[in-house]
Amino acid sequence: MIISSEHRPWPVPKKNWRMKQIWHDLLFIHWPLPISMIRPFIPKRLEIDTFEKQTWIGVVPFHMSGIRMRGLPVMPIASRFPEINVRVYVTLDGKPGVYFFSLDAESWLAVKVARTFYHLPYYLANFEVTEKENRISYQSQRTSSNGRFCFQAEYGPTSDVFQAKKGSLDYWLTERYCLYANNKNSLYRCEILHEPWPLQKADANIIRNTMADLDGIRLPDIKPIYHFSKKIEVLTWGLEKV
Predict the structure, then answer these.
(1) Which domains does the chain have, with CATH numbers?
(2) What residues have CB less than 8 Å from 124, skipping those under 6 apart?
(3) How distant is the alpha carbon of residue 89 from its chain centre?
(4) Per its UniProt record, what Pfam families does this chain match (predicted)?
């Protein structure tokens, strides 16, 4: 598999990529939030990224497949599962990226590996995901939360595929090529490569969403911004301490 990297804001690492994934039926759901609301949750070294002086929080349901380590076949017991994450936007040393508040997945092995080797806040969850007539029905429930962190929605695309223009809010929200993780007061960066997002406008009927209900954070009671992407192939590198 060859993925071009010319569109990336900075060069890919000289080291070989470590993991391949394919993401399917992904919905970006974004709300604006005050910087002061999310600052307590972000490591001090990271600057909260903004677009026109406004920052955003995203809830992102999708499912992945084809997960494998470089040089190895697809992992038979952890190669395909749903995931939903809660993310905000940060930057360090001129490299804007993603910082995750949580990532819920159906695979216990993926949860363990991601927590151990990527220092990411993964949680085990139960999911029901189906597709009918180009609409995705998506439900998740974190197993350890006593019903607190759950999501239920139906969503789908409403436009043709497009690529976000540089300098637009669409681009700022989606075209991110690294993630940051924190462990024992040490900060890490993981580089990411994929083609420019094949986006579509979308709509959703969100029945329940408590994924971002952290102490001190409340989503505004407004209609969020939706973006849909049917499929994208992704390469990730290992963590590098920064």
Answers:
(1) 19-241 (2.40.400.10)
(2) 104, 105, 106, 108, 111, 142, 143, 144
(3) 11
(4) DUF2071
Tokens read off for 240: 């590098």
The residues of the chain scoring below 50 in pLDDT are none
The two three-digit tokens of residue 96, written as one number: 């804007």
- Three-state secondary-structure class, residue 173: helix
What SS3 class is residue 226?
Answer: strand
By DSSP bridging, strand 95-105 and strand 122-132 are parallel
Q: How far, in whole angstroms, is CA 150 from its chain's centroid?
A: 16
**pTM (predicted TM-score):** 0.96
On whether the CB atoms of residues 197 and 190 are closer than 8 A, the answer is: no
Distance (Å, whole) CA 101 – CA 121: 7
DSSP string, 75-140: PTTSSSEEEEEEEEEEEETTEEEEEEEEEEES-HHHHHHHHHHH---EEEEEEEEEEETTEEEEEE
Cβ(210)–Cβ(10) under 8 Å?
no
d(CA 203, CA 224): 10
